[in-house]
Amino acid sequence: MFKKLLIANRGEIACRVIKTARRMGIQTVAVYSDADRNALHVRMADEAVHIGPPQANQSYIVIDKIMQAIRETGAEAVHPGYGFLSENPKFAAALAAEGVAFVGPPQGAIEAMGDKITSQKLADEAGVSTVPGHMGLIEDADEAARIAAEIGYPVMIKASAGGGGKGMRIAWDDDEAREGFQSSKNEAANSFGDDRIFIEKFVTQPRHIEIQVLADQHGNCIYLGERECSIQRRNQKVIEEAPSPFLDEATRRAMGAQSVRLAQAVGYTSAGTVEFIVDGDRNFYFLEMNTRLQVEHPVTELITGVDLVEQMIRVAAGEKLSLAQGNVTLTGWAMESRLYAEDPYRGFLPSIGRLTRYRPPEEVAAGPLAKAGKWHEADAPAGETAVRNDTGVFEGGEISMYYDPMIAKLCTWGPDRAQAIEGMRLALDRFELEGIGHNLPFLSAVMDHPKFTSGDMTTAFIAEEYPDGFDGAVLPEAELTRVAAAAAAMNRVAEIRRTRISGRMDNHERRIGDNCVVVIGGREIAATVDADRDGATVRFQDRTTHRVTSDWRPGEPLARLQVDDAPLVLKVNRVAGGFRLRTRGADMVVKVFTPRQAELARLMPEKAEADTSKMLLCPMPGLVVKLHVEEGAEVQEGQALCTIEAMKMENILRAERKSKVAKVNAAEGDSLAVDEVIMEFE
Q1: Separation between Cα atoms, residue 156 and residue 200, nearest integer Å
Q2: What is the pTM of this model?
Q3: CA 595 to CA 158: how far, in whole Å?
Q4: I need a labelling partner for 246 at 20 to 30 A (CA). Which of 2, 30, 117, 189 fits?
Q5: Which phi and psi (to 5°) does residue 611 adopt?
Q6: Could you confirm whether 288 is annotated as catalytic?
Q7: Which DSSP string do the residues of 193-219 spell out, in sequence order?
């Protein structure tokens, strides 16, 4: 077995690999850019080597710099993680020439499967179901539009070397094909250094389901079940689960057999993933093969008990698989929520800045992975539902504009799908994150969505269920009532604490009344609060009674309560007259008044928001790539105004209505802050 392993990556996946290597007794080497000098993966590794500036194309994807780090440290093997150099055959060749083991597939398999055009042809030759499309190279936007029309709209425009949603667009007509081709080409060149594009038929109402394969250097290849990855936004996976709630055993076996056949056809070794698109009749079509570890690999680990990183390392060391296909069992259900630094209230645009508070929920070991002794947090207490958080950040750290916006992968395991979902709901509510925009509220809302909980979703779920974006969840009446009871009880605790402040004037004792008015969801609820040593009994005006217990204390940002013997977790911020409370994707200001305060509050005028309707504001920190209009230009609704690049993605800002450009305040190449005025209209 190797004695020293270099991880040619950063962030969450580097930390993930280090945990397994440490458990295996292997020393680790981290590499880092200027932006990652104080990163978590650098702190965790036994050694760390600086490799250059923040930009990935000057550091993490420069093969010569990684090779130099290997020589300096004497690393015997390299794990590439995902992204960056993980699917670069030149990197695998450079390692082979140096006599260093690549913890991944052979160069030939990377070349065959990493290129989307070639992989489609090979899959077809191997008898794997494929989607109709044009696999040849496309020279320009006009040719892209012609080919797309021949295939039949809608079509998917994809980068040949793409992955992670980068360089992908859906086009519904010729204009979108031309525009999408150019944007995909630009993103592909910036992210992968390869701007080749191909086009295939976009199957409507599809599910995205993938098969995890694992192969050794001795001809053994198995599949470890499937992952449901249909909850996507802009082709970027957001929530994954294993197994899929849609597949039956026959379809699972057929997809697994085809995946193994494809892997063996290209001499594949290590862990890999074969992705399929599946229609409503369970017909499945090959999309691509990712010749690396997938972001969502933890859900497979949680239901199989197999540590995929460990298996990759053992395969690279020449060991045989210790597991045969007949020994693979899928136990329970696992969920993964990707926590991104993107603001759902601003159209999921990237957000950067400092994590002023970062407190993930406590990790709890349970299920097959814990039983197999592969749980990374060996000291975590056993429990019915497992909680796992794979992350690469820490409180006080910075979310950089240079890299992918993923902060963490929160995973849960339960004996069945319902328990895994409920575990995820509670874990998301307990996840404290402040300082940047993030998608925690959206993830919570999805976990409560009827279509998701029923398992009846497609890759169009987000577009169909949130067509106008995400403005926060609206809690059902019963849940609002529980929150109102909790707020009344918490206010009583705060009031009691205020009566104990020392240094009061004589004969000015503060008295607390039993009656209050809770203002929540635009309505007032009169209540009576009867507090005791164990909690409080809250009686509402409709004669309903709620029992609230908690050890919450004023000033604590997280409240874990029991309301009517059911758990309720609230993120708490004190505001004038009450609290800002966040739970299950809802963000509410809940006021708790005395009856007299409530009477006076009704007379208070509301402050109008500033009018920015005649301005184009920068929705995220980013770089102005292109200005599409000039001062004095007439613009139409939907017309492109400006392209902003942030976190390796290009975002086109469009006109909301017909207007005339009065002033342009930004220039191409400018770095803008959020809400900075780009242009003004008459």
Answers
A1: 5
A2: 0.83
A3: 61
A4: 117
A5: -85, 110
A6: yes
A7: S---EEEEE--SS-EEEEEEEEE-TTS
